[in-house]
Structures are given as C-alpha cells and as structure tokens.
Amino acid sequence: MSEDQTATADASLSGAHRRSIPILLVEDDDVDVEAVRRALGDASIENPLHIARDGIEALDLLWGRSGKRGLSQPCLILLDINMPRLNGLQFLEVRAGDIGLKQNIVFVLTTSDHDQDKMNAYGRDIAGYMQKRDLARLMGLLRDYLDINRLPDHTN
Q1: Sign of CA dihedral 80, 81, 84, 86
Q2: Which residues of the chain have pLDDT under 70?
Q3: Is 23 exposed, middle or buried (0-12, 13-18, 19+ CB in 10 A)?
Q4: Where are the beta strands (DSSP E) in 20-104?
Q5: Separation CA 32–CA 85 (nearest Å)
Q6: pTM (2 decimals)?
Q7: In sequence order, what are the beta bridge partners of 23?
Q8: Beta bridge partners of 128
Q9: How confident is the model at residue 153, as a pLDDT?
Q10: CATH number reported for the structural domain that contains residue 125 in this entry
Q11: Is 7 contained in some domain?
C-alpha cells in the first residue's frame, strides 16, 4: 500500500465513522451532564449527543414516544444507575426484553462501586462498567472504540 493509500485509509478510520453514531447520555445530574459534554469535546468526539434524565426519557427517545423522534440505532448509551422513576438497572431490564434495543451499546457510567450493581449490570449485556471519576479515560476508550468498531449504517 502506498503512503497516500495508507493516509486515506487512516483518515477514513478517524472521526468520519464516529460521527454517524448517536450517543445517548442517561443522567439526571446537571453537573455530570456538563462534565460528560466537556469530556466528549476534549476527546474530539463529535457524535450527536442526546440527553435523557432517567430511564423513562431514554426509552421515549429510543422508541420515539411522547412526541419525540426516535434515535437512529444502533447508538451508544452512557447510563447512570441511580436515577428517579426508572433507574439504570431497570432500564437494562427493559432493554433485555426488547429485541430492537439490544443492538445498542451500553456503558454504565456511575459513582457506584458496589459489586451487586456491577453483577446486575453485566448480567444484562453491557459493554462496560465505569466510574464517573474515570471520565477522561473513558472518553479515550470511547473515541478509540468508535474509531475502530464497525456498526451497521443506520442511515440506510
């Protein structure tokens, strides 16, 4: 492969693919929402970002309910555990029973370090369980994941 072909291949693996996958942040704390927004920017992750304040709002966005347009899928979900109405573990339970939601990639992003929460989350097919204090490291992982992972094109 020539240098020009290598550069073109490298460019095609960078941000172009990453931008096509929406990110859904399910988080009820405004400070944490802003921290994630900043961290995504700092990591040069330019994917469309959607915010849901709890599991019910997340489901509304994913299913296109309550007058909301449904999100393109698959999408990447950053999910807090401790939220009102429908918490993160309850959201994962609903997701497990819905074949349409199973194609989404879920990373739990929480303050909880309880082994029971980890076991419950991993038992519901998540991609990873991270603590909010590791936000900068998570963004590096997400940037690399979105750059190299190949998902079906949801625009077709």
Answers
A1: positive
A2: 1-19, 68, 151-156
A3: buried
A4: 23-26, 49-52, 76-79
A5: 18
A6: 0.83
A7: 49, 76
A8: 107
A9: 63
A10: 3.40.50.2300
A11: yes
